[in-house]
Amino acid sequence: MTGAPVVFVVDDDPSVRSSLKFLLSTVGLQVESFDRLILSCIKSGQTCPVALYWTSDYLIEWTRFSTRACSEKHSYPIVFYGHGDIPMSVRAMKAGAVEFLTKPFRDQDLLDAVRIALERDRARREQEKEVTGLQQRLDSLTFREQQVVSMLVSGMLNKQIAGQLGTAESTVKVQRSRAMEKMHAQSLSTW
């Protein structure tokens, strides 16, 4: 993680940007505000629930960015707010919004939506970290250890693996032990 989460507030009204920045900062959040959506401000790996003023231009730009980010395996939580109707809120949710708040909304509703966005982003980051760690441990296995693990996971016994690989059962046991150690696994069920 690259430091504390940053909430980006995007609104074309300077007074709204200022009041939302103040509101979010009162609960200890780091806030940056912009008069238009500047996707280049979102750095890779940075937490960023984004509160957006509703316009179709913002939604179109966000949808494009979100599509690109998904293809790069990044996901950013977003909270849309503004004047809208049901079709607009459906479009926002399809674009990946955590919430679509219609104006006027209560301050607490916005704070709750941002809190949910932060929690979802934190959970996503933890999951990505676990997957990355698992992949690194898997990559540390030798080719033979990977073969043994694959066969073990498919339900084969050490003796069956040895027969299929043309090696001694004791060799399979050593490779299994090394693989489990590298994978930080206590048993096959923890894989």
Strand line-up across the major sheet: 2-1-3-4-5
> Could you give a short account of the major beta sheet?
5 strands, parallel
Kindly state the number of beta strands.
Answer: 5
Q: What structural class do you assign from the helix and strand content? A: alpha/beta
Strand coverage percent: 5-15%
Gyration radius from CA atoms, angstroms: 24 Å
Number of helices: 7
- Give the N-to-C terminal Cα separation: 25 Å
Mean pLDDT: 80
Proportion of residues in helical segments: 40-55%
Outline type: elongated
Q: SSE order in H/E notation?
A: EHEEHEHEHHHH
| Uncertain parts | none
Describe it.
The protein has 191 residues and is of the alpha/beta class. 54% of the residues lie in helices and 13% in strands. The chain contains seven helices and five strands. The protein has helices spanning 14-25, 56-71, 86-94, 107-139, 143-153, 158-165, 169-182; strands spanning 6-10, 30-34, 50-53, 78-82, 97-102. Strands 2-1-3-4-5 form a five-stranded parallel β-sheet, sandwiched between helices. Strand 4 (78-82), helix 3 (86-94) and strand 5 (97-102) form a beta-alpha-beta unit. Helix 5 packs across helix 7 (169-182) and helix 6 crosses helix 7 (169-182). The radius of gyration is 24 Å and the shape is elongated. The mean pLDDT is 80.
List the helices and strands and how they pair.
Elements: E1 6-10, H1 14-25, E2 30-34, E3 50-53, H2 56-71, E4 78-82, H3 86-94, E5 97-102, H4 107-139, H5 143-153, H6 158-165, H7 169-182
Parallel strand pairs: 1-2, 1-3, 3-4, 4-5
